[in-house]
Design brief:
- With about 400 residues, the chain is of the alpha/beta class.
- It is built from 14 helices and 17 strands.
- It has 2 domains: about 140 residues, Aspartate Aminotransferase, domain 1 (Alpha-Beta Complex); about 250 residues, 3-Layer(aba) Sandwich (Aspartate Aminotransferase, domain 2).
- The N and C termini lie far apart (about 45 Å).
- A 7-stranded mixed β-sheet has the order 4-10-9-8-7-5-6, with helices on both faces.
- α8 links the parallel β8 and β9.
Amino acid sequence: MELNINEIRSQFPILHQEIKGKKLVYFDNAATTQKPKVVIDALMSYYEGYNANIHRGIHYLAEKATAAFEETRKSVQNFLNAQYSEEIIFTYGTTDSINLVANTFGKKFIEKDDEIIISTLEHHSNIVPWQMLCEEKGCLLKIIPINDKGEILMDEYLKLLSPKTKFVSVVHVSNALGTINPVKEIIEAAHKIGAKVLIDGAQASSHIDIDVQNLDADFYAFSAHKLFGPTGMGVLYGKKELLEAMPPYRGGGEMIKEVTFEKTTYADLPYKFEAGTPSIADVVAFKAAIDYIDDLGKKNIAAYEDELLKYATEKLSEIEGLTIVGQAKEKVSVVSFVLDNIHPQDVGIILDQQGIAVRTGHHCTQPLMKRFNIPGTVRASFSVYNTFEEIDRLVEGVKKVIKMLS
C-alpha cells in the first residue's frame, strides 16, 4: 500500500498554520507526535457524550465509559500481541511505568549487592528510578557501553551479566540517536542467567511492530503521546505471573477488593495497579490512535519514514561543518547533528524563526552526551506526515544558520 501523504497531512489540523510568517515544519516527533482529527474527535465525543467515572457506576454513562475504556485495553493487547488483557496496565506514561516496576518488583525482589544493568543510551527516565532503587537497597548499577556509531557493544553486555544480575532495563530505540537496539538478544541473554528485563519502548512503539511474546519481554513500557495519542497516558505490559507477584504501586480507590481499618485486600489484575480515577478520556481516545495506525499499516509507516531518514541523512551529510551523531546501522527516523563552533540552542532558535521546529539540547540523555563529549545536539525527528520538501527546508535553514554564525 502506497501512502497518500497529502491526504494524511490533511488529517492533522495543527500542521496547517504559519509560525512567524512561515509554514510550520514540525520535526520534533521524538518528543511528541501531532494528533489526527479522529483522536481529537474521540476526546470531544467522550466529554460531550458520555463523561463519567468508570467501573463503579451502574448508570448508562458510566457503563458506556467503562466499555470504551476496556476496549482500549483490548486494542493495546492486540497492538503488543500480549497473551492476556490483564497484562496491560494503564499508567501516566513511560516514566510512570518504569517507576512502577522499580518501586514494586524492585523493592520486593532486588536485594543488597544485586546488580541492575542499563545502557549508555538510556533516557533519564530509565536511569534515575534504578539509581534511586540502588541507593535504597545497596545494589549496583552497571552500564552497557556503546561504540562511536551509537550502538550497544553486545560483547561487553554479555561480560556484565553474572549470577548477581537480577534486572536489565534498556531502551528499544534511542530517543536521542534513533539507534534500534537488539532487544530480543538482550532479553535472551538476561534470561539465561535468571534476570528479568524491562524494555523502554517509548520511541520504538511508533516505528516498529512490537510482539512482546516473540521478544519474551518481562515488561514493556510506552506512552500514547508518541503514537498520535493524547498526553498523560501510557502503558505498562508485564507478564501475568510477575504482575501478580508484585505489590501495588499506589493505594486508593479501584485497586481494592475490600477495605477495613484492620486490613485491605487488593483487586485482581490489572486494577491492582490502577488506583484512583485514571485519564479516562485519554485512554478512550488512544484507541482511535491505534486504529489510525492500523489503518495506515505500521510497516507502511516505517517504510516511508525510512525513506525520509535516508534522504535527510544524505542531504545533511553534504553540509560542510555538520556532523551527524549516531550513525547506527539499524535506526529509526531520527537525525541528531552538531555544527562546528555553533551551539545547538542557537541553531534551534534560528530554525524556529524560519518556522522549523526541532529539538535541541541533551534530550534527557546527559550521560550519552558526555560519552560523545558534546553539550547536546540538534535533533530532527520525522513522522509519517512529514515530506521531502520539508527536509529541503531544514537543509536550507541549517545553511542559513552557518552563514549567519560562522
